[in-house]
Amino acid sequence: MEFTDWPLINEALAHGDLDANNFQHIPYLQNQITARGFDLVPGPASIVVPTGVYSARVPSLADLPEGGTIAIPNDPSNAARALFLLEKAGVIRLKEGAGITATVLDLAGNPRNLRFVELDAAQLPTSLPDVDAAVITLNYAVLAGLDPKTALILEDEHSRWHLVWATRRDNAEDARLKTFIDLYRSPEVKEFILTRFDGTILPTW
After folding, report:
1. Is 51-154 in the same CATH topology as 6-48+159-203?
2. 64 pLDDT band (50/70/90 cuts)?
3. What is the DSSP string of 69-91?
């Protein structure tokens, strides 16, 4: 089945049109469960589609200017993801206990007084001429012709925003699904991903 809208994928799973899906990280899934009331559960991890920080203006995060502008995704789970990546880079500091719903209101430290602009994820690559940096997931970055090797910082395979297999609660223990997922998480598939996608997709096993 082909979908043009992410929430429809979970809707199809919840209604029994799919037995499993593999397109979302746990923060997004949890947001969907809360917002839509889906009785879905996360299964094993699959891959990471890394998020990176890109800039057309500065060669490194250390060169971000005082009062500079950073574009981040405007959906809650990926906005938090962007902020945690910027914290990992030492650009900002989040309040203690800030979790997967963190927003710019959860900043505890912003030494360069950076300003944050929230945009639709697909618009982030085109925003680069207008901002000092943008936090972009590689699926959008690669489509826009950005080279992951030019990212100022890039997530690795240990990102907690890895994708997971999701199922309905009532079929989470289905032996056929478990066999399928085990086959997916095989050494052969791992080698294919590493070779075919050259770092733009990372296996988690």
Report:
1. yes
2. very high
3. EEEEESSHHHHHHHHHHHHHTTS
Domain range annotation of the chain? 6-48+159-203, 51-154
CATH code of 51-154, in short, is 3.40.190.10
Residues 24/139, Cβ–Cβ less than 8 Å: no
pTM of this structure? 0.84
Give the pLDDT confidence of 5-27 residue by residue, as tens digits.
888 999 999 999 999 999 999 98
User: How many angstroms separate the Cα of 87 from the Cα of each of 3, 94, 148, 167?
Assistant: 34, 7, 20, 32
Q: What local confidence, expressed as pLDDT, does residue 201 receive?
A: 93
Tokens 């992951």 appear where?
148
| Assigned fold of 6-48+159-203 | D-Maltodextrin-Binding Protein; domain 2 (3.40.190)
Task: Give the CA distances from residue 74 to residues 66, 104, 111, 116, 194, in Å, rounded to whole numbers and listed in that order.
Answer: 23, 11, 23, 10, 30
Residue pair 200/138 in contact by the 8 Å Cβ criterion: yes
The rounded distance, in Å, linking the Cα atoms of 83 and 66 is: 18
Mean pLDDT, rounded, for 162-173: 97
Mean of the pLDDT values across residues 86-97? 96
Binning pLDDT at 50, 70 and 90, where does residue 199 land?
Answer: confident
3 vs 188: CA distance, rounded Å = 28
Looking up tokens 């990992």, which residue turns up?
88
